[in-house]
């Protein structure tokens, strides 16, 4: 396997010089890409509607094509699911990535073209390995197997020639043979739909393998690793897989899970690499393992626009809006400004709001951090609390009290005739703090330091009362997800809500 490791490493690292090109010429690459996308789609129904034949500049594109969200393109997707083609993109669309985005009941079906698979998702997969090997040239990554904690895949009932499933399952289903050779578990297990049965079979089959790297959403990966320890009776995962060296994560912030992983994988040489990939595309890769930021990937068939959250429609909607909500292009962005991410892709998404917010940490090259969701925030009292604020404050509270958080969500406590408002935090602790009041006080203090609007509303308790932290028993979030049929795959807990629907539902389930 050592020879194979050397060959694959050499082949994958050849991509690094191409990455350097878009680092040096980012804006030129993006401008050229946009015109290539619109030229490719000029004969589609969408391209004819917005006259892509005559488009010559980015400004014309922005002024002519309205901003979109899932609801506005859903009629096109419904037709594609039934077999119609050449609607949003010229080549055949037969795959749809099923995505809930949050724990909402409504599923989204994102079109996946052959171009987006090859030039975006697969390219991103190879690039993250290239960047890791660039950071760790002595790696033995390909001497072992890669464990992928993915989702399920099934035939779309609308048309026998089209399919849907979690994006991870679509990728696994279409992987080239040489990647399949290096991956575990077997496809018959990896693509199972029933999560609890799949978890058990994954645990029992992979614990016998020599796993060198793991890829998956942190919450579900932890569930699998803990089950493997239960079955084997081992104290930690390094006793099961002594050659494990890398965990690749994305989809949610790693901050709440970091201490749990360090506890279960107590190895100083363990590496963690963050990626920013979604059903809609592969956007960013951590190119420096020492820094908490990701390189924005600019040559994956995705054209980026950025909508300042200060200008974001208060309703949280972008559909059909073009002039009223002005986006900025890559050359116009600023550091530490919160932006909604708008994309146009080689799968036929045009000026599409994916619902994520990011901020730039560097402009040369362009590097980003994911800060939250456009609809995942608390602003019931003008406090503008976003996920990034919440996780910095929770991290501080855990650090100073020795607590470890498994899952959490938070929502407002609305003002009433009898009292003021506040925030209620439902937290499932892996390791509870010795003093919950101290934990709450540190959380409150840190939120004030990272968010001036929150600090103003908390001044002398005039508007907001101190946070109410409610510990929940172990397994509460898991059983709630199970009740909703949301186990495994890409399903995740919404961290912040501007109403109490989610929090009240979990509390009702807990009772």
Describe this structure in words.
This protein is of the alpha/beta class. It has a domain at 377-510. It is 37% helix and 23% strand. It is built from 18 helices and 20 strands. The chain has helices at residues 2-13, 16-24, 26-40, 45-49, 58-64, 70-81, 114-135, 167-173, 177-181, 187-190, 195-206, 218-232, 258-264, 387-401, 436-450, 452-458, 476-483, 501-510; strands spanning 93-99, 108-113, 145-149, 153-155, 163-165, 183-184, 211-216, 246-250, 271-278, 281-285, 294-296, 302-308, 339-345, 352-363, 366-373, 377-378, 385-386, 404-413, 422-431, 468-472. The strands form four sheets. The protein has an eleven-stranded mixed β-sheet with strand order 6-3-7-8-9-10-11-15-14-13-12, with helices on both faces. Strand 1 (93-99) and strand 2 (108-113) form a beta hairpin. Helix 2 crosses helix 3, helix 11 crosses helix 12 and helix 14 (387-401) packs across helix 15 (436-450). The protein is globular, with a radius of gyration of 23 Å. The chain starts with a helix and ends with a helix. The relative contact order is 0.12.
Secondary-structure map:
Layout: H1 2-13, H2 16-24, H3 26-40, H4 45-49, H5 58-64, H6 70-81, E1 93-99, E2 108-113, H7 114-135, E3 145-149, E4 153-155, E5 163-165, H8 167-173, H9 177-181, E6 183-184, H10 187-190, H11 195-206, E7 211-216, H12 218-232, E8 246-250, H13 258-264, E9 271-278, E10 281-285, E11 294-296, E12 302-308, E13 339-345, E14 352-363, E15 366-373, E16 377-378, E17 385-386, H14 387-401, E18 404-413, E19 422-431, H15 436-450, H16 452-458, E20 468-472, H17 476-483, H18 501-510
Parallel strand pairs: 1-5, 3-6, 3-7, 7-8, 8-9, 19-20
Antiparallel strand pairs: 1-2, 4-5, 9-10, 10-11, 11-15, 12-13, 13-14, 14-15, 16-17, 18-19
Helix pairs in contact: 2-3, 11-12, 14-15, 15-16
